Structures are given as C-alpha cells and as structure tokens.
Amino acid sequence: FSPSVLGTREHWDAAYERELQTFQDIGDTGEIWFGEESMVRIIRWLEKHKVPLDSSVLDIGTGNGVLLVELAKSGYMNLTGIDYSPSAIQLSEKVREKEGMSNIKLKVEDFLAPSAELSGFDICIDKGTFDAISLDPSDAVGKRKLYVGSLGRVLKPEGFFLITSCNWTKEELLNEFREGFEILEELPTPKFCFGGRIGNSVTALVFQRK
C-alpha cells in the first residue's frame, strides 16, 4: 500500500478531537467504520456460535466505542476497548455515559506495545485498525508483524479473532496471520460488480488462535 496520513497517530488524534467536539456540541457519535452492517455481522456470528455472554472481548482500536455499546445491548458483559488516541477514548467514554453502559472498560493503549494487563481475552475484534497500521508511513511491515505478535499475546489459545478490512483480500489476510492462527470462517460482506467481475469491497474473517 502507499503510505498515508491515515496510518499516523497525528491524523487519528486530530480526527477524534473533531468528533469529540461534535459530540459535545450536538451529540453525534461520529462515523461507524464499515457501516452498521459490519457490527450486525460480528454480533450475529457471536450469537450463532453461542459465544457465552460473559466471554472477555477486546475491541482493538475502538474509536467512538459504538461497537462495544452494541455488544453490551446484545447482552455481552465483559467488554474492553483500547485506542492509542486519548481523544478517541474520551469520545468513547462520553458515548458509554450517554448510553448508560458503565460496565464497558476503556483504556488508552497502543496495541503494538500492549501493557501486561492486556491479556487472556476470549475474543479480539478489529474493524479497520490493521488497515490503518498497514498505511503507516514509517515501517508498516514491521508494525504489522508487531500487531500479529501482540494478538498472540493478548488472545487466549483457541480464542477467536474477528477482523474486518477494506484493504486486504482473504488470501492476503491468511498470509499475514499464518503464524499462530487458523482461518475458521469468511463472513458474507456486500459484493460489487465492476467490468463484469464480482468482488468484495470489504473482507471479514474469523481466525482462531492455535
């Protein structure tokens, strides 16, 4: 990928500072990455596989925290969201407060250098964070490797990793996560047709830690 400001912390700090101000002004929670259907897809998968409601769930790069709110509304009780942008965590705290979901835990954490207490999760979810890391102008390849290493540390053996991406194909993601993870399922995503070829603009996969 071409390096992009979308891969920099400065970009996300500024973006979430704007969203925080907008929320304080008019109560708008901001953008939902990949739209609402991406959240529905994740929750449906968890419900279909009867993932217990007390399973520990980590949302990597939680942003405004709306996915965690939707998980809480679906009955999940052990929810944690992390983001390296303090403004994102401030925003997600305000969204949590507005929705009355005091049991959601939120922390400023850089997933590429996670604290020791960030471990033992049953489920890890990523909607766009791996995409953003892949666009980092400084050593994106090294950072992707750090990401996979961190995932192996925070996710329990046999835990599930649900990733939604608009930058990576299924085959590319299988290659990125080949060490320590195996594919369980590809989730259906919207298809598009261009020049007679059908493709997916979004890839959603479920991996299991070996």
From TrEMBL:
Give one GO molecular function term: protein-lysine N-methyltransferase activity
Q: Which reaction does it catalyse?
A: L-lysyl-[protein] + 3 S-adenosyl-L-methionine = N(6),N(6),N(6)-trimethyl-L-lysyl-[protein] + 3 S-adenosyl-L-homocysteine + 3 H(+)
Under InterPro entries, the record lists:
Efm4/METTL10 (IPR026635), Methyltranfer_dom (IPR025714), SAM-dependent_MTases_sf (IPR029063)
Using the record's annotation, list all stretches that form the Methyltransferase domain: 56-185
Q: Name one GO biological process term.
A: methylation
The UniProt keywords, alphabetically, are: Cytoplasm, Methyltransferase, Nucleus, S-adenosyl-L-methionine, Transferase
Q: Which CDD domains match?
A: AdoMet_MTases
GO CC, sorted alphabetically, is: cytoplasm
User: Which Pfam families does this chain map to?
Assistant: Methyltransf_31 (PF13847)
Could you identify this protein by its name?
Answer: EFMT2 methyltransferase
The gene behind this protein is Eef1akmt2
